[in-house]
Every structure is written in structure tokens, then in C-alpha cells.
């Protein structure tokens, strides 16, 4: 029997100039590996049991970046990716999954950039990112590990209208 996909949300947080927030992962997390030069990604995380995806995306955004002030712009349907082969301990929290089944959300930062602090532990979740920056949405797929690239290309196509600075 094949392993299930882990329910997950992804965040495309746009600033007023139409750029998205990306963070630099500074360590592997089981099958979620990083590769030299491909350490960047948008925030994402698991959906808790009985949690609504819209609630999950706001929780994950806050846990990983500290941002609380963001408005909903849109969302994708469900997208999936497979983890690369994993030979680590079977007890790792992600080892029971074949990959992630994600719903991505486009959000607009409505607060200050001063909220962005990826190095603080929140909800007992260790930091995943040691740096952050704003990037063009159409460039992000070139900065992520290969197993995530197709999902990032789909997200870029679906959220391209938000990448343009609002009037």
C-alpha cells in the first residue's frame, strides 16, 4: 500500500510592490531536503487534524514568519509533490508520507515588514528559515529544490495577477 500525502498549506505572501516573501531554509527536515543554491521557498506547513485550510495558512504564516496582518487574495486547488527517496529514521514525522498535498493561498501583507521575524520559535515550532527576502513570483521556481518546482510553477501561473503592484 502506498503512503498517503500529508495535508499541507502554502503561502504566497505579496507585498505592495507585488513581490512574494521567500525564506532560506537552513537545514533538512527528513525527506524535505535542501540542496546547495536551492534553499529558498515560500512558507508552508501541515494542516492539523480538523483544521480548516484557511485557518492553517494563517497559523503557518505566523509560526514561520511572525506575520499576523495579511488579507486573503485567492487560493489554488489541491496540488501534490512527492518527497525524494528517504533513508532516514522511520520515526521521523514526515517518513509516514509519500509527499505533500497542498492548497496554496495568496495573501497581501497589510501590516509592517517589521512583523517578519523567521528566527523566533512560535507554538514550539523551531525556526525553518534563517533569512528572508522579497522576490518576483516568476523567479521563485528557480530557487527551490527540484521536487517542489512543478508546484511552484503552477502557483506562479495561478497567482500571476497578484504579482502586479496594485494601483
From TrEMBL:
GO molecular function: bis(5'-adenosyl)-pentaphosphatase activity; guanosine-3',5'-bis(diphosphate) 3'-diphosphatase activity
Segments forming domain Nudix hydrolase: 4-157
Cofactor(s) the record lists: Mg(2+); Mn(2+)
Top-level taxon of the source organism: Bacteria
Keyword Ligase: no
Name of a matching Pfam family: NUDIX
CDD domains: NUDIX_Ap4A_hydrolase_plant_like
Keyword check for Ligase: no
InterPro entries xref list: Nudix_hydrolase, NUDIX_hydrolase-like_dom_sf, NUDIX_hydrolase_CS, NUDIX_hydrolase_dom, RppH
Keywords recorded for this protein, A-Z: Hydrolase
Biological-process GO terms, alphabetical: nucleoside phosphate metabolic process; ribose phosphate metabolic process
Family assignment from sequence similarity: Belongs to the Nudix hydrolase family.
Protein name: Putative (Di)nucleoside polyphosphate hydrolase
Naturally occurring in which organism (per UniProt): Bradyrhizobium erythrophlei
Amino acid at each position: 500500500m502506498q503512503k498517503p500525502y500529508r495535508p499541507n498549506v502554502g503561502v504566497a505572501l505579496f507585498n505592495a510592490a507585488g513581490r512574494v516573501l521567500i525564506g532560506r531554509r537552513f537545514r533538512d527536515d527528513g525527506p524535505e531536503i535542501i540542496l546547495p543554491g536551492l534553499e529558498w521557498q515560500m512558507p508552508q506547513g501541515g494542516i492539523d487534524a480538523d483544521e480548516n485550510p484557511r485557518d492553517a495558512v494563517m497559523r503557518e504564516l505566523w509560526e514561520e514568519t511572525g506575520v499576523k496582518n495579511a488579507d486573503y487574495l485567492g487560493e489554488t486547488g489541491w496540488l501534490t509533490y512527492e518527497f525524494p527517496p528517504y533513508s532516514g529514521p522511520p520515526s521521523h514525522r514526515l517518513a509516514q508520507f509519500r509527499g505533500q498535498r497542498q492548497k496554496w493561498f495568496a495573501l497581501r501583507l497589510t501590516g509592517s515588514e517589521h512583523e517578519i521575524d523567521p528566527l523566533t520559535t512560535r507554538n514550539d515550532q523551531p525556526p525553518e528559515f534563517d533569512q528572508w527576502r522579497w522576490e518576483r513570483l516568476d523567479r521563485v521556481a528557480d530557487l527551490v529544490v527540484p521536487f517542489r518546482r512543478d508546484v511552484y510553477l503552477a502557483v506562479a501561473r495561478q497567482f500571476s495577477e497578484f504579482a502586479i503592484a496594485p494601483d
